[in-house]
């Protein structure tokens, strides 16, 4: 049994990290907004989904105009990423302006409900537009990269099997890491990042120090949503097929990842995402073997949520978070 | 108009007469024209009007009882659509009870629960498993399916099973607060669904995704309950119990502690409210209503499977509570009725009508825009609009107004009993 | 106070509305003789809307072709399409609505067995006969309901037929099963597993995936480790296509096999070239193979400007069966409209009806004696696949 688990381990790790990278980048969006507004932006998963659809639409447009054939795939991807990020970034700002800003002083529960509403609304709008234009809301986009790379793990240790890595996974991993490092640098080193952190600490004092709080919050939503949209494009690249309901489950998992790492903490979100991806992949590949057939791969979500609940009980601030005492 | 208004606002008899006339006309309309959904809805609307009259509470309850027990079934019974009206009315009743349960958790105690449908599932499966041959797979004794008479006992069993699960969920979950609680309960709801979907191995408890079919119908004195018109009365009976319970809890010591916890946990705690106990009670009581209705649902559908208990269902119940008004009992009832009727009757009717029209070629209508597909859109819009413009819901919650002097005098009389003082404080907090 | 004012206004308007509605209720459909409604109940929205709509359109075509005949007999046929959203609760609620409407004489539906089973309990209460163009689960007819019929094969015929083909023709000895944990997928995979074990094949694994997810690499890693020579998938095309695609990317080149849930053009659209070497059993024949089928396809195309899906012709045949039973019942009742119970009896009595794609004759449970299972293979990325075999009882 152990040898079988070891054999597949390299491939499980590769797949888990790919999935984890998606979780991680979406988790960044949750964590940024939460860090500043203490609001779970439930709609973030849908922004990710919208990003996937916008990306595929741009790709369709480009291939329709014949541009795809003449430009290198990487350039095409860059264009799609930039356009999609802009669109979803603005969308995120708009959502904040319409659905969250009027509620900034309201109880948290009300804002959360508004966020769930936005999430439903976006799902249905995207569904409607896609179904109207294409007759079917399940869309398969053109593929930019379809080669794959063999990784020779067996030469490292004879117990391992070789693994296969898709080119799109490499691109996904590289872009995700670039985005994470870029964001970390932006928040910790730039002037705007400093403004963001100060708003997160104390909104009123930040305002007194001459920071335009509304602008900073808008910027936060823009960056978070742009990252989410870009991840959507990468997701569409990786899996090929998208539908309007992918955002909800993925968003939920990404949020779980953010909480796991300590919500509000950017590095924690990255770590939580990758950890969750690997754990989930490991569970679905090995649960049956480990439990002698009692639990099958379907229990992987139970496994993921179970871990979340356990972490929250014993370390409510998450793995990387700092405990906050509440003042009355 | 103005005169009429001022005449009406003071004159209880006039109000009573008008309500009576209204009920009479709408019920006659329903009686005479069986297919008119509008008449059915208007008759239900009379209950809302009744709520706004200035009649005494006792009389209101009595009138509502007369309309629900007698007039509505009578008016609907004459024609072919009887059962379909009763089906809608029964489902409304089921959702009202669940929304009232969630209202305790979300509205009164302020704990956002996004996995509430799990308790409904627990109730449904409790009856589903024992009222079919399913139980013989793992029960060493007894003969299954149990007879239809056990249904009445199972309403209580479902109630306690759900309450117990509410407490079990509550114990670990209550360490987390606010937004975290929402996500953990959501996870819990999904876990329950996945577990039910997979519990056909190693021992077949729930028959997995295939669901449990041919659930034994309830039986009383040899009479079998199979039609919606019969379940209507079961639901009505449970609803009376639920409403009585909610009414009593709301203004009791525990109800006031819920509200105190909702407004500020730390302040409530420092006023001597036991946080864990209070929250667990909210979870348990809220869950128990759902559990009871789960049993009824399983018996009514004669079929239980995990697809009836998805996250969307939890959100739907939440929409009912928000729409009606968090913490407001009449509001939540109204919210549940509106959402259920919208979902089952209005959207279906409009869609059917549009389909008919486009089939006859009268209009061309994109399939994608069909109203029954727009459920999420409508719910989403309701949630946002209400959150922004009317967070208190259709009928906002009212706190009873007390005369301070009277209370003080009352407290002075009972100086021996110390408990009354913090209670009053807790209410103000 | 505002409420008090509006109270009066609302009440006044409500009264008039109620009266209006009361008058308006019955006025429709008095011209052209007595109205007979035939309902369809299929998912018209949601993931399987394509299939659900194709059934509705097929049934609509059959109904419209028979309109004249029934008009001569003094009845006006009308189709009432219901949308069950592939949701059992919605199905039951609709069933109550249409069962309550005494003008509805029969139902053509459903697509999903999970919806069909609870809904048919309601039909039985109201004696509404139902003819299913697509349900394969054994429980649909095994409960012995008098009103429930189907014109397609059962899972315990489809599964074994597939297993037999897999072992004898493809030569599979080691089989890995994946299913989507829905009533349909599990029923089919269980039937296949049982038959494959009996046929002497070794079952290397039996795993579930989650509907709505997109990454199935975890389960596929198990497949890689076990090295089967056939993978069977019980489930629908959305997940099936992704599974096949990701399997091929992982280098799993062995044949895949699935049930009628894979029988959709969307499968090819999503999976692309990965669809090669995929077999699927289907209870639906390829209508384009026979001259009658081709005629039907062109009529369908003319009328709705859509190409036929796998179940279009079955919707058509189900409706034809219903109308034949209805006609016989009317004739037996001195050209007057009979009770629904009688219609149900006459539908069950049908023994040799020749439809466009299938011959229909019901046994005493309501299963079609002439139902066949067809086996298709995708040799290129084009829908439908090539028909490889045809198995009858």
From TrEMBL, chain A:
UniProt keyword Cell membrane, yes or no: yes
Domain of life: Bacteria
Gene Ontology BP terms: D-alanine transmembrane transport; L-alanine transport; L-isoleucine import across plasma membrane
Pfam families, sorted: BPD_transp_2 (PF02653)
Membrane-traversing stretches: 20-40, 47-68, 74-95, 107-126, 163-187, 216-239, 302-320
GO molecular function, one term: L-phenylalanine transmembrane transporter activity
Signal peptide as annotated in the record: none
Localization of this protein: Cell membrane
Any one cellular-component term (Gene Ontology): plasma membrane
Keywords: Amino-acid transport, Cell inner membrane, Cell membrane, Membrane, Transmembrane, Transmembrane helix, Transport
Membrane topology reported for the UniProt record: Multi-pass membrane protein
Record carries keyword Transport: yes
InterPro entries from the UniProt entry: ABC_transp_permease (IPR001851), BCAA_transport_permease (IPR052157)
Main location: membrane
Family, per entry: Belongs to the binding-protein-dependent transport system permease family. LivHM subfamily.
Protein's UniProt name: Branched-chain amino acid ABC transporter permease
Taxonomic source organism: Fictibacillus aquaticus
UniProtKB/TrEMBL annotation, chain B:
UniProt keyword Cell membrane, yes or no: yes
Sample GO molecular function, one term: branched-chain amino acid transmembrane transporter activity
Topological category with respect to the lipid bilayer: Multi-pass membrane protein
Keyword tags: Cell membrane, Membrane, Transmembrane, Transmembrane helix
Transmembrane parts of this sequence: 12-30, 36-52, 59-76, 88-106, 111-130, 150-171, 178-196, 231-249, 280-303, 315-342
Region (Disordered): 408-429
Subcellular location: Cell membrane
Entries under InterPro entries matching the protein: ABC_transp_permease, LivM-like
Record keyword Zinc present: no
Feature: compositional bias, Basic and acidic residues: 420-429
Record-level GO cellular component terms: plasma membrane
Cross-referenced Pfam families: BPD_transp_2
Main localisation: membrane
PANTHER family reported in the protein's UniProt record: HIGH-AFFINITY BRANCHED-CHAIN AMINO ACID TRANSPORT PROTEIN BRAE (PTHR30482:SF10), HIGH-AFFINITY BRANCHED-CHAIN AMINO ACID TRANSPORT SYSTEM PERMEASE (PTHR30482)
Stated name of the protein: Branched-chain amino acid ABC transporter permease
Origin species: Fictibacillus aquaticus
From TrEMBL, chain C:
Presence of keyword Transport: yes
GO process terms (BP): amino acid transport
Residue ranges annotated for the Leucine-binding protein domain, each copy included: 36-379
Domain of life: Bacteria
Alphabetical list of InterPro entries matching this protein: Leu-bd, Leu_Ile_Val-bd, Peripla_BP_I
Transmembrane spans: none
Keywords on record: Amino-acid transport, Signal, Transport
SUPFAM superfamilies, per the entry: Periplasmic binding protein-like I
Leader peptide range in chain numbering: 1-21
CDD domains assigned: PBP1_ABC_LIVBP-like
Entry's family note: Belongs to the leucine-binding protein family.
Name this protein carries in UniProt: Branched chain amino acid ABC transporter substrate-binding protein
Organism: Fictibacillus aquaticus
């Amino acid at each position: 049994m152990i040898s079988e688990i070891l054999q597949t381990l390299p491939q499980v790790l590769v797949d888990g990290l790919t999935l984890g990278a998606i979780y991680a980048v979406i988790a960044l969006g949750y964590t940024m907004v939460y860090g500043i507004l203490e609001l779970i932006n439930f709609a973030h998963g849908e922004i990710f989904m919208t990003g996937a659809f916008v990306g595929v639409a741009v790709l369709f447009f480009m291939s329709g105009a014949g541009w795809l054939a003449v430009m290198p795939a990487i350039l095409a991807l860059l264009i799609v990423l930039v356009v999609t990020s802009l669109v979803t970034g603005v969308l995120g700002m708009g959502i904040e302006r319409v659905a969250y800003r009027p509620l900034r002083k309201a109880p948290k529960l009300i804002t959360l409900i508004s966020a769930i509403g936005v999430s439903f609304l976006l799902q249905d709008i995207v569904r409607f537009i896609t179904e109207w234009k294409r007759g079917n809301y399940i869309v398969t986009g053109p593929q930019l990269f379809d080669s794959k790379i063999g990784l020779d793990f067996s030469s490292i240790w004879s117990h391992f099997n070789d693994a296969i890595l898709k080119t799109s996974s490499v691109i996904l991993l590289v872009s995700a890491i670039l985005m994470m490092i870029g964001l970390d640098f932006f928040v910790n080193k730039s002037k705007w990042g400093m403004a963001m952190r100060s708003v997160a600490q104390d909104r009123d004092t930040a305002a007194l120090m001459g920071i335009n709080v509304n602008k900073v919050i808008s910027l936060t939503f823009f960056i978070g949503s742009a990252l989410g949209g870009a991840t959507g494009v990468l997701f569409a690249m990786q899996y090929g097929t998208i539908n309007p309901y992918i955002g909800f489950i993925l968003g939920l998992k990404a949020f779980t990842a953010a909480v796991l790492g300590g919500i509000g903490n950017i590095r924690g979100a990255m770590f939580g995402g990758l950890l969750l991806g690997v754990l989930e992949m490991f569970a679905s590949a090995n649960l049956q073997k480990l439990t002698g057939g009692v639990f099958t791969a379907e229990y992987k979500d139970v496994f993921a949520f179970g871990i979340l609940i356990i972490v929250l009980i014993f370390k409510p601030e998450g793995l990387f978070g700092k405990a906050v005492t509440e003042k009355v | 108009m103005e005169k009429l208004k001022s005449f009406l606002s003071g004159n209880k008899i006039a109000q009573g007469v008008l309500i009576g006339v209204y009920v009479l006309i709408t019920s006659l309309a329903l009686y005479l024209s069986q297919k008119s959904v509008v008449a059915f809805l208007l008759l239900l609307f009379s209950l809302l009007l009744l709520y706004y009259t200035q009649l005494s509470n006792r009389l209101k309850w009595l009138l509502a009882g007369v309309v629900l027990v007698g007039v509505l079934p009578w008016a609907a019974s004459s024609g072919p659509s009887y059962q379909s009206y009763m089906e809608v009315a029964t489902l409304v009743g089921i959702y009202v009870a669940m929304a009232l349960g969630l209202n305790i958790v979300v509205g009164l105690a302020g704990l956002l629960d996004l996995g509430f449908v799990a308790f409904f599932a627990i109730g449904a499966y409790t009856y589903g498993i024992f009222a079919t041959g399913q139980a013989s797979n793992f029960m060493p004794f007894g003969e299954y399916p149990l007879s239809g008479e056990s249904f009445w006992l199972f309403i209580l069993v479902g109630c306690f099973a759900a309450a117990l699960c509410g407490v079990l969920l509550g114990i670990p979950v209550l360490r987390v607060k606010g937004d975290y609680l929402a996500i953990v309960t959501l996870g819990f709801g999904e876990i329950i669904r996945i577990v039910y979907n997979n519990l056909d191995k190693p021992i077949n408890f729930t028959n997995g995704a295939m669901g449990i079919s041919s659930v034994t119908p309830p039986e009383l004195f040899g009479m079998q309950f199979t039609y919606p018109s019969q379940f209507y009365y079961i639901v009505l009976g449970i609803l009376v119990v639920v409403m009585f319970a909610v009414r009593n809890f709301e203004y009791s010591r525990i109800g006031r502690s819920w509200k105190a916890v909702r407004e500020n946990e730390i302040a409530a705690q420092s006023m001597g409210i036991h946080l864990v106990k209070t929250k667990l009670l909210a979870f348990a009581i809220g869950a128990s209503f759902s559990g009871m209705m789960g049993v009824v649902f399983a018996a009514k559908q004669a079929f239980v499977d995990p697809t009836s208990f998805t996250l969307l269902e939890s959100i739907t119940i939440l929409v009912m509570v928000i729409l009606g008004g968090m913490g407001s009992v009449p509001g939540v009832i109204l919210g549940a009725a509106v959402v259920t009727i919208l979902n089952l009757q209005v959207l279906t009717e409009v869609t059917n009508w549009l389909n008919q029209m486009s089939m006859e070629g009268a209009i061309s209508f994109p399939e994608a825009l069909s109203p029954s597909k727009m459920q999420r859109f409508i719910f989403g819009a309701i949630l946002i609009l209400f959150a922004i413009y009317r967070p208190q819901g259709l009928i906002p919650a009212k706190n009873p107004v007390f005369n301070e002097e009277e209370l003080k005098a009352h407290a002075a009389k009972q100086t021996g009993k110390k408990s009354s003082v913090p209670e009053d404080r807790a209410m103000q907090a | 106070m505002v409420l008090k004012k509006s109270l009066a206004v609302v009440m006044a308007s409500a009264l008039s509305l109620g009266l209006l509605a009361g008058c308006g209720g019955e006025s429709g459909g008095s011209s052209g003789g007595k109205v007979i409604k035939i309902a369809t109940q299929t998912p018209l929205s949601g993931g399987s809307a394509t299939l659900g709509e194709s059934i509705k359109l097929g049934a609509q075509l059959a109904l419209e072709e028979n309109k004249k005949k029934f008009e001569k007999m003094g009845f006006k046929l009308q189709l009432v399409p219901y949308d069950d959203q592939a949701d059992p609760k919605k199905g039951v609620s609709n069933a109550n609505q249409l069962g309550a409407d005494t003008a509805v004489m029969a139902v053509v539906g459903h697509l999903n067995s999970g919806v069909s089973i609870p809904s048919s309990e309601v039909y039985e209460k109201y004696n509404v006969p139902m003819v299913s163009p697509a349900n394969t689960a054994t429980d649909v007819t095994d409960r012995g309901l008098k009103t429930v019929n189907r014109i397609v094969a059962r899972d315990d015929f489809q599964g074994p037929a597939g297993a037999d083909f897999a072992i004898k023709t493809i030569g599979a000895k080691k089989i890995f099963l994946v299913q989507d944990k829905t009533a349909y997928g599990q029923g089919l995979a269980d039937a296949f597993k049982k038959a494959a074990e009996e046929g002497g094949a070794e079952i290397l694994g039996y795993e579930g995936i989650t509907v709505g997810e997109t990454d199935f690499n975890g389960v596929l890693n198990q497949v890689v480790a076990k090295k089967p020579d056939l993978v069977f998938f019980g489930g629908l095309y959305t997940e099936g296509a992704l599974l096949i695609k990701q399997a091929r990317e992982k280098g799993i080149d062995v044949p895949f096999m699935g049930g009628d849930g894979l029988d959709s053009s969307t499968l090819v659209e999503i999976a692309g070239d990965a669809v090669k070497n995929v077999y699927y059993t289907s209870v639906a024949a390829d209508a384009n193979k026979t001259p009658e089928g081709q005629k039907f396809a062109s009529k369908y195309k003319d009328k709705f400007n859509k190409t036929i899906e796998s179940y279009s012709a079955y919707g058509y045949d189900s409706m034809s069966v219903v109308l034949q039973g209805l006609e016989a019942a009317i004739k037996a009742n001195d050209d007057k409209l009979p009770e629904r119970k009688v219609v149900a009896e006459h539908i069950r009595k049908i023994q040799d009806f020749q439809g466009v794609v299938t011959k229909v004759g019901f046994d005493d449970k309501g299963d079609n004696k002439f139902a066949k299972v067809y086996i298709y293979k995708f040799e290129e990325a084009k829908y439908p696949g090539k028909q490889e075999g045809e198995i009858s009882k």
